[in-house]
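Possible regression after last week's pipeline update?

I re-ran a chain I had predicted before the update to compare outputs. Posting the input and the new output here so someone can diff against the archived version. Not blocking, just want to make sure nothing changed silently.
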Amino acid sequence: MTATAYASPSVVNKPSGSYDAIVIGAGVAGLYQVHRLRDLGLNVIGLETGSGVGGTWYWNRYPGCRFDSESYIYQYWFSQDVYESWTWSERFPAQPEIERWMNFVADRCDLRKEFNFNTTVKSAVYDETKSRWVVTTDRGSTFDAKYLVTCCGMLSAPLSEIFPGQSSFKGKLVHTSRWPKESIDLNGKRVGVIGIGATGIQVIQTIASQCKHLKIFVRTPQYIIPMKNPKYGPAEAAWYKGRFDELKETVPNTFTGFEYDFVGAWEDHSPEQRREVMERIWNEGSLRLWLASYGEIFSDEKASDEISDFVREKMQERLKDPRLCDLLIPKDYGFGTHRVPLESGYLEVYHRANVEAISVRDNPIQCMTPEGIQLANGDVHELDVIIMATGFDAGSGALTRIDIRGRGGRSLKEDWGRDIRTALGMQVHGYPNMFTTGAPLAPSAALCNMTTCLQQQVDWITNCIDHVEQSGMNVIEVTKEKEDEWVAHHDEIANGTLVVKTNSWYMGSNVDGKPRRLLSYIGGVGPYKKKCDEVTESGYAGFAKR
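New output (post-update):
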């Protein structure tokens, strides 16, 4: 199927009442989780805030939003028919095409009827007397179920209320993850963009030519990789569709859930050989330099320094201007310890006459005024539109914004406010029969091709629920000892890397008061899968069942 405009059909909401399982979210994980649980014969309901499916690809409609995973890798593997029935237009498609693909999957598998859309979960409370979860929504509806599975997304809790005076701004103020379905006219407008992470970069390179004047407020510079995005025709489609079995077997067992893996040991290659590898991979125009060049990039300072210098050199060749180089090229952290974006002409934007880079590193944004943005030194930048690419409360935020209460009325928000802990990123001690995807301490929290890791988690959760059902039990809950064991293992691996030495959203550093811990398991997607499989094969040792 080629990508065409998609109009969501009307759906009748499922009634309040009792179900076997409640799934929160209709993104990559939520759709697949509902599919798997329904195949077990369970009566399942999905609850979704948006008016349609797609998750991050529903909410993020900002200009320039697109994949940075290859389209034929960011895929479902449960059905060869589904895989082969959709044809991508290019290597890294844009958001409209991705959203249409998500709708295609939902319709092909007849999943839409299982969801209540325009429905936000406000609370989820565990009833110990009945061993069931009671969920209430903003629509006043109440549901209860034996199992609660959260598929809320690792990047779905935007940091939108950040600056004093936001409500006073007279122009248009929008956060990238809540971009309206109707387009925003930027022609002839004075536009400000706050944030130059992966999202900010996509926005900036896309809108620069439209704005009368574009002011980019720069705090933390980012390493980048130039994207190569060829169009796909019949030959390319035949090539990747013919690799279904190969890719299905490969991607769950690599370090980051992509088709590629590391080229070898750093010390086994001479400086000349390493340079040749880096040049070759750089020219591929994908995330491979970050995720599949040398594994030592995450742990060895010499390797990190050499690769970081290589990328800095590439950026300097394009920026030229010493001021821009100082402002936009990182110096105080290593390549790959932050999220690395792909870009298309981003650096060249700063050479445009209508673009101004404003450093807020030492002169931060103080507030918003009716006219625009005021800095600490008192300067006011007058604007017609302000775009906030200010990121998310990653990993944990989507769940702590729901009032989740476990045994004894304990609060997940309060628990994670003290210490962010999970077992395998899929259960939390004190919250029986609650399963999580895209949550902290699993690769899916950040360092993974998301479809790979989310499907792996959904499969594990489904098998666990099936085990409980087949055993005639009512409850499964990870023990404190098992959770402690996983947290210790996670931290041991994390603390051997350079990532924990860098302030970033990976560490929760972008959220005031958030406990500092690497959100993502960094031991590798393949090894993580093996550890999860070992738990299954042990009959869920370390999980209390009754």
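Follow-up from reviewer: compared with the archived run. Residues 467 and 539 are 8 Å apart (CA to CA). Marking as no regression found.
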